[in-house]
Amino acid sequence: MYDMKALYQAKDVADAVALRLAHPEAHIIAGGSDVLVQMREGKRAGVELISIQGLNELRGVSLEEDGTLRIGSLTSFSHITRDPLIQQYINVLGEAVDQVGGPQIRNIGTIGGNTCNGVTSADSASTLHAWDAIVELTGPNGVRRQPIHDFYIKAGKVDIREGEIQTAILIPKESYENTFGHYIKYAMRNAMDIATLGTSVNVRLSADKKTVERARVAFGVAGPVPLRAKTAEAVAAGKPASMELAEAFSQAVKEDINPRDSWRAAKDFRMHIAVESAKRAFIESVRLAGGEL
Amino acid sequence: MSKSVGKSVVRVDAYEKATGRAKYMDDLCGREALVAKICHSTIAHGFVKSIDTAEAENIPGVVRVLTCFDVPDLPFPTAGHPWSTDPGHQDVADRLLLNRHVRYYGDDVAVVIAENEVAAAQAVRALKVEYEELPFVLDVQKAMEPDAPQIHDEFPGNVLKHTDIRKGNYEEARKEPGLIKVEGWYDTPTVQHCHIENHGCFAYMEAGRVVVVSSTQIPHIVRRVVGQALGLPWGKVRIIKPYIGGGFGNKQDALYEPLCAWCSTQVGGRLVKLECAREETFVSNRVRHAIRTHIISYVRPDGTLVARKFEAFSNQGAYASHGHGVVAKGMGAFPQLYPCDNLECDCWTVFTNRPAAGAMRGYGIPQAMFAGESHIDDICKAIGMAPLEFRRKNLMPVGYVDGFSKNELYTDTFNQCLEKGMAAIDYQRKVVEYQNQTGPIRKGIGLAMFWYNTAVWPISLESSSCRMVLNQDGSLQFQTGETEIGQGCDTAYSQMVADAVGIPVEDVHVVSSQDTDVTPFGTGAYASRQTYVGSFAIQQTATALRERILNIAHEQTRMPVSNLDLVDGQIVRKTDGRVLKSLGDLATECLYSLEHSQHITAETTAQIKTNAYSFGCSFAEVEVDIPMCKVKLLNIINVHDCGRLINPALAEAQVHGGMSMAIGYGLSEELKFDEKTGKPLNNNLLDYKLSTFMDHPTLQAEFVENAEPTSPFGTKALGEPPACSPAPAIRNAILNATGVAIDCCPITPHVLYRKFKEAGLIAD
After folding, report:
1. Helices then strands (H, E): number in chain A?
2. Overall average pLDDT of the A20-34 stretch
3. To bridge A64 with a disulfide, which of A68, A268, B252, B471 should be the other Cys (CB 3.0-4.6 Å)?
4. pLDDT tens across B549-569, in order?
């Protein structure tokens, strides 16, 4: 039994926008794997809810005309993992979200909910940051597109404005073309856990597979929101792929990240794991891209 | 005669449980029930000055708000021990239904009774509790310091109890020249049972009595405690125990049955349900004692133990519950597992401002084995002796008799278990293979032994009662006070009853539910005694029932009783083996006889004045990823001698469950507290790292079957033993892999990071 003041069920995106305007205090509920838990805990007790669960147009993965990969915000984790377009162009995202919770959670949890929560530990978030994802929001003034980096304002707060709902996550062609990545979820057990640290690395190699043309790395739980390690990326860009480079790349992430001390893990421990994870994810990404170290 | 004991017959409750038909507490509760919800303290120590209930009472649906200022002043004990009629041996009565003196973060200060859960939760949030805060203490040794906060007036210095063992002369013996001193401190964590069904109960009044249906292991004990807490004659209380979703010792306490019963009495006897949320189960039920153990061993270079010191500090938390018995049991194992002539052993049970610790699977032995078996490997490392060789030299020898319990090691169990485990995991080959490893990823293999006492005699009452009632078709109902809590005892009982009476196992109908109004008296499920103590009552009652049956057979067949037998549900003439009639025909004729109709039943109480050692060991193989500070458990094997197996499949399942709990204990589980406030930090199943099956390798159970001579069915403990030795085996495997001796469990990546850094294995 949930302490719920009212439930408004949106019929389509336009209706969802209208409901958002009519009930500005209401919370959006999609899969419910976060919202219902927080209601039960009392944190969101007594709230009004707008359910977008019935908006099937927000489900599924497709390619737009310009090659942009479009992931509807209500696409569940398990659908993302099994989607052929995801497997072809950004397999690491499917692997990352396959590490969320357990099978039941992955069946109800959505990528939109995962990002709109604004939590740094979300398993999709570091990979979406590392691949320069674009967040699509639909509101009273139409569609607004925003880099995911700007979408995250602070811990637990994202840039969803009056009347808006998130409708898609977009991966531009330039981001995924010839690019291979690896995600390491560092957690205290192998299932049903949140990340102590999430590390997502991807690389694009030169045609001869010898040189790293571009390397990108993003972390979850290395700061209040997911963040990129640009210093490390610069260290790797244009360099020959080698174990030495993997080492230099991973050491450089220390310049950019700022994990905190908490009872869940100490700062120095998280820092240590970040370096080791960056190295391993870099090596694996190069290998996936066909390179040798 | 078709014997049932020893066969893997299907659980008697399998179909009901697998199909969801089995009725648990919540399934049985009427939908009209009022909901009781507890307001827990948000300070770790202090006094409630006032509670403003006005806003809460105005919330629609709220029926009654009761606070710590309303409860009767009747302190009661909660431990699920048999009552002692000797006041000197009674459990400590330090509980009230709700507390003005708050002793841990999460203590019970008020309760709301409402028409539904939402109103109850809203009202709890609307209560305004004003506290007078006092300093608090979480650490067991800090609580023993002179200026520590005092938690119970009756126990100055916070020491609930101290006991010791002395043998020989430790101080003199350790002066022997040439001895090697090995010293270690070992910490074990506060953990929770995490049974799948949270504790809950419902209560109502009927004909001037209080009825409580509860998820408990110990209905007859709860009846007594509810009577004590409410000031009612015990006969005015009726407790019903339906199927329950696990207990592991947490439900071997009276938990919220007294409060729920009292709530019902405060609303005119209406039906009131009180169900714990998981967050409450972690904090406001019971936990396992965190125990800090200090061991010093003086050893000759050849591995002879000359003198040993043992000190254990047991963190009791805020209330006495099971109290000192837990660490005392752990200490009791120390002189027995590796006998030594010169010993100084002391243990203290100390109040702190943590959740109350009670019984949990193993009752002090998982803690004692973690410390003791880790220390054995530390000795081996110090003197350069192989862990296997040291153990073989020093383990309890065949023929050892414990003076107190009169337990005896009858057979060469330890070596048989070691042999079986070594063969299964290929121990000797791997010991050689894993020597002198370098590199970031290393493998290791470790072992640990355990000692376990099956039951509680001679410390406490041990009796078991049962009743058998014959039906017209020759089948019978079997009832006992010993409870099915998921461990499978109903099935084991059905097998033993079948063989003892002489009927097919499918003709035994076990009455799974206990109802204190109709079930024979019994103290419930605890220790590892269900199959052991139950077997005595079953054998004795079956003998009585057979005698009645054969006397009736004599009346009906005119054959002398001495010529008759009951075999597989048939009355057989022993002289020629002829089947004279079926038991069903006998029963039908007897029950409807116009001349001499009789109800065919037997009911007895067996006094159990023996106990039995249960032994075994664990082998663990790990792969340690040093830079990632992670341990991957590659293989784990438990070997048990629990006597003769009543049901091999159930025995294997029991071992698997215990191993799973022990893996979490060794590697991931710990209830954490905020040092600044005493607040529990991870009282939920996300942040408390109960291990999942993704964290387990295949769990392997092996058995050595030396029939236990004291038991009618040759059986002894298997309930708790599987949880006793895996954690130190894992710890010793990590030592073998890395050379790093970890001094605490759980051995989390946080611990490994710190220890690997100290050892210079990782550098930042």
Report:
1. 13, 14
2. 97
3. A68
4. 999 999 999 999 999 999 999
